[in-house]
Automatic annotation (TrEMBL):
<keyword id="KW-0560">Oxidoreductase</keyword>
<protein>
    <submittedName>
        <fullName>Uncharacterized protein</fullName>
    </submittedName>
</protein>
<dbReference type="InterPro" id="IPR036291">
    <property type="entry name" value="NAD(P)-bd_dom_sf"/>
</dbReference>
<comment type="similarity">
    <text>Belongs to the short-chain dehydrogenases/reductases (SDR) family.</text>
</comment>
<dbReference type="InterPro" id="IPR002347">
    <property type="entry name" value="SDR_fam"/>
</dbReference>
<dbReference type="Pfam" id="PF00106">
    <property type="entry name" value="adh_short"/>
</dbReference>
Length: 201
């Protein structure tokens, strides 16, 4: 199958050790051409020389960066078949003819806890947040327990669902996924109350 006959899958947030990286590897293993994006190309360097991947820098919080990445992909491959928006910014793609599947993950083993803690530890010590320091650290590591779903398993099941002829509009996978799905639909004030109670802040 030639490069241009393969499904073109764009994935945001593909840094090594994360969910996006595992999804990129799984889509590639299924014969897709994967556009693996991250804010820094250094964080996807292990994919750079593999012909199943096209790596590209993308900061989803910058409209210019999104436009540049999209135009580069369309210029190079002529289309985008699947977008996996793993970087936490909601993009409305239905007007572009792209069906949207909402994936609400439970606890999935990834590098997110370490990244969050590293970011928190680099912040200046603000008196306002000092009393919440322990709760912030606990929240950063909350999804990273021995019961967390391995990212490879999560990726395999997600790709299975996405590549179906009639994929679901909603997909919730991973440890405590049902709880996360319920929280997702709760009013914000109830979610905030439950989270404050869980982390005692």
């Amino acid at each position: 199958m030639g490069v241009y006959e393969k499904l073109v899958v764009v994935i945001t947030g593909c840094s090594t050790g994360g969910i996006g990286h595992a999804l990129a590897r799984e889509f590639a293993a299924r014969g897709c051409l994967v556009v693996a994006t991250a804010r820094s190309l250094a964080s996807v360097s292990d994919l750079h020389d593999d012909p199943r991947f096209f790596t590209h820098e993308l900061d989803v919080s910058s409209d210019d960066s999104v436009r540049h990445a999209l135009s580069t992909v369309l210029e190079r491959f002529g289309r985008v078949d699947i977008v996996v928006n793993n970087a936490g910014v909601q993009l409305e793609l239905r007007p572009l003819g792209i069906d949207v599947i909402n994936v609400v993950p439970g606890a999935v083993k990834s590098n997110i806890g370490n990244s969050a803690l590293a970011s928190y530890n680099r912040m200046p010590e603000w008196k306002l947040y000092k009393r919440f320091g322990e709760a912030i650290r606990a929240r950063a590591a909350y999804s990273q327990t021995s019961k967390s779903t391995p990212s490879e398993e999560f990726a395999k099941k997600t790709v299975d669902a996405v590549l179906k002829e009639n994929p679901p509009a909603w997909l919730s996978l991973g440890h405590k996924a049902m709880i996360m799905a319920i929280l997702y639909h709760m009013p914000l004030f109830i979610r905030d109350f439950l989270i404050r109670r869980e982390f005692k802040c």
